[in-house]
Amino acid sequence: MGFFYNRNIHPYQEYRRREDALKTYAEQVDLEVIYQDGYDIETFLQNVAFREKDRCSYCYHDRLKTAATIATHGKFDYFTSTLLQSKFQEHDMVRSIGESLGKSYGVPFLYRDFREGWKEGIETSKSLNMYRQQYCGCIYSEKERYFKSRDESR
């Protein structure tokens, strides 16, 4: 069972590209997916404004809490996150938040370092002609990915 929940993604077109890529993949492999209702970037921005340096911990907590809630209501054995596949995410923080929420919600967080298959995952996604994201998704990471100051661009 998959779960698509990404209210941090900016711009909306990027959100749609990622959702559409998952829908296509899910159909190909017969994966059942729960999709979030709506696009609520305002809540993400309200919660990280003036706390931009802590935005990842807020984002991890929000995403994992929502996944834990779904797992509890769906009576799942575990919950985990695709964040654990990325070499760019803070695994210790994801693990700590996930395990804490797992205890609170009564469904264990499955931690596994999925980065071992990172290169293989890239090759697989390319062979399937999947859309590949170029930044984590939030407006701040989009800026970090694409904006170069005059000093950096020299």
Instruction: Please state roughly what percent of the residues sit in beta strands, choosing from under 5%, 5-15%, 15-25%, 25-35%, 35-45% or over 45%.
Output: under 5%
Main pleated sheet = 2 strands, parallel
Structural class: mainly alpha
Radius of gyration, taken over Cα atoms and rounded to an integer in Å: 16 Å
- Total strand segments: 2
Low-confidence stretches: none
Q: What is the 3D shape?
A: globular
| Element string (H = helix, E = strand) | EHEHHHHH
Distance between the termini: 47 Å
Q: How many alpha or pi helices?
A: 6
Estimate the mean pLDDT confidence: 94
Strand order of the largest sheet: 1-2
Number of domains: 1
Please give the share of residues in helix: 40-55%
What does this structure look like?
Helix 3 (55-73) packs parallel to helix 4. This protein has helices at residues 12-29, 41-48, 55-73, 91-105, 118-127, 139-146; strands at 2-4, 33-35. Helices cover 51% and strands 4% of the residues. The protein contains six helices and two strands. Helix 1 (12-29) links the parallel strand 1 and strand 2. It is globular and about 50 Å long. It has 154 residues and is mostly helical. The protein starts with a strand and ends in an 8-residue tail after the last helix. The longest helix is centred in the middle third of the chain and has 19 residues, at 55-73. The chain has a two-stranded parallel sheet with strand order 1-2. The protein has one domain (2-146). The model has no long low-confidence stretch (mean pLDDT 94).
